[in-house]
Amino acid sequence: MIVRRSLVLPLIAAWAAIAPPPALAAPATDPPAASAEEVAALRREVESLRALVRVLQDQIAALPAQPAVVAAPATPLASQPPAPIVPATPRSQTLMNPAISALFLLTGATSIQPREGEDHFDLSEAEVAFQAAVDPYARVDLYLAFPSGESPEVEEGFIATTDLPGPLQLRGGRIKSAFGKWNLYHSHQFFSIDRPRVLDTFFGEESLTTDGLSLSVLIPNPANLYLDSLTEVGAATHGPAFNSGHRGLTFLEHLTAFFNPGRDHTLEVGATGVFGETGPSEDLIAAIDAAMLSGTLVPGDGLDSQVYGVDVTWKWRPVDRNVYRSFLWQTEWLRSRRDLETLDLAGPALVPATVSSTGGYSYAEYQFLKRWRAGARFDWTEFPDDPRARERAVSGVIRVHPSEFQELRFQIERITRNDAAAARAGGDEDDTRLFFQWIPIIGAHGAHKY
Q1: Closest Cα partner for 290 from 354, 348, 355?
Q2: Which of 8, 327, 385, 447 is surrounded by the fewest CB atoms within 10 Å?
C-alpha cells in the first residue's frame, strides 16, 4: 500500500483529537465516571490509530529523500555571470545547405573482334549534384559532370518554381529536353550501359539539351486523366540534328497521357516535336575540303531541322510483390526531317535538298529477384543527314542492385551496319561488344521521375 504524504497530517490530527488529554488540574466538580466498556472501546481505537501512525511513519521513511532547496544568496546584479550562449540546433544549421550527392561510372568494354582502342577500363563519368530550395517559391537542381578525358561541364542546372497558380511549373537554365523518355535520363539512370543507337545518331552522345525555359501545364479534362503539356524554348547544344553555328532558337512541345489500366499496371503515351536550325554536315565539309573548294563554296548555317517522336511505356508491378517482381516495356520511334546541301562537282555548286530519316528502339526488362533484373533491347536507325546509312543492334542486359546505393551492369551488344554506315565507322560492318559498369552513389541523391 502506498500512502501519499498529504494524508499524514490529517490522520495525526484525528488521532490527537481522540487520544486522552494530559492530566490537568481537577475541576471543581468531578465528572461522572465512565463505565468499563466505554474505556475499553476508547483504548482499542487509540491502539488502532497508533498502529496506523506507525505504518505511515515507516512508509515515509522508505520514500527517497528529496534534496533540500536552499535559496541562493543574493548576488549583486553587476557580479552575476552572463547567460550562456545556446548553440543553434543541427536542423537550423543545415536548413540553408543543399542536399549533396556524388557518383561515378566505372566502365569496362571490349570487342570480340580485335580492334585497336576497343579494350579499356576507365572512369567514364563522375557526377556531383546539388539540390535545395531557394525560398518558398523556387528550388534549384545543379548537376556537374566530369567526363573521362574532358573538361568538367554543367550537365543540367535549372531553377524551378514551386508556387505558381494552378497546375503550372516554370523552369529555366540548362535542361535535358523532354523528348520522349530516354533523352531525360542521366547516364546512371540508363537501363543499359549505352544509350539507344537512334538517340546517338539523331542527337549525339550527350542527348538533346537546351539552354532556355520550360513550362509544364497539367491539362484539366472530363475523363480525369493525367494529361501534361510541356513547352520548351531555348538554344540547343551542338549535335547532329541542331548544330547551327549561331545557335538559333529551338522550340519543343511534348504531350503526355498517363493511364491506369489496372491495379498493377500503368501506361504512359507521349508525342514530341522539336523545331530548330542546323548547319552543314561533317561529310559536306569534308567533301568541300577534299575538292579544295573551302574558299569558294560556303555552306549555309541556318537550315531548317525538325525531329518528331512517339513513346510508349508500360509498367507492371504487382502490389503484393512489388519488391520482388516487375516488368517494364519502353519503345520510342523517331523521324527526322532536315534541309541540307550537297556538293555538285560539275558546277561546282551546293545543291539544296531535304532528307527524311527514321529510327527507334524497344526495350523490355523483367525483375526476377529482389535485386536482379534482365533486359533486352533492339535498335534500328538511319542517319539524319543520310537515310541510306543504317545500323541495327541487339543487346542483352543484366542489372544487379546490392542496395539502393550501388548498381552493377553487364551487357553484350551485337551491331550490324550496311555499307554506308560502315564507312562512317571505319569500315566495320559488324561488331560484338561486351560491357561492364559499376555505379556507387553517396549522399542525398534526389528521386528520379517515375
Answers
A1: 348
A2: 447
Note down pLDDT in tens along the chain; length 450 residues: 444 444 444 445 554 544 554 444 444 455 555 577 777 888 888 888 887 888 788 778 777 655 555 545 555 544 555 555 555 545 555 566 889 999 999 999 998 876 655 678 888 899 999 999 999 999 999 999 999 888 899 999 999 999 888 789 999 999 999 999 999 999 999 999 999 999 999 998 888 999 999 999 999 888 888 999 999 999 998 888 888 777 789 999 999 999 998 899 999 999 999 999 988 877 788 888 888 888 788 888 888 999 999 999 999 999 888 899 999 999 999 999 999 888 887 778 888 889 999 999 999 999 999 999 999 999 999 998 889 999 999 999 999 999 989 999 999 999 999 998 998 887 888 889 999 999 999 988 776 676
CATH code: domain of residue 144:
2.40.160.10
Contact 129, 154 (CB under 8 A): no
Asked if residue 445 lies in contact with residue 188, where contact means CB atoms within 8 angstroms, the answer is no
Please report whether residue 168 resides in a domain: yes
Alpha carbon distance 102, 197 (integer Å)? 28
**Residue 180: which H helix or E strand, with range?**
none
If one counts the domains in the chain, the total is 1
Q: Is residue 14 part of a domain?
A: no
- Please report whether residue 39 resides in a domain: no
Which structural domain range is residue 133 located in?
100-443
Q: At residue 87, what is the residue type?
A: P
Smallest Cα–Cα separation from 247: which of 276, 207, 206? 276
User: Smallest Cα–Cα separation from 248: which of 206, 200, 208, 210?
Assistant: 210
62, three cell numbers: 522508505
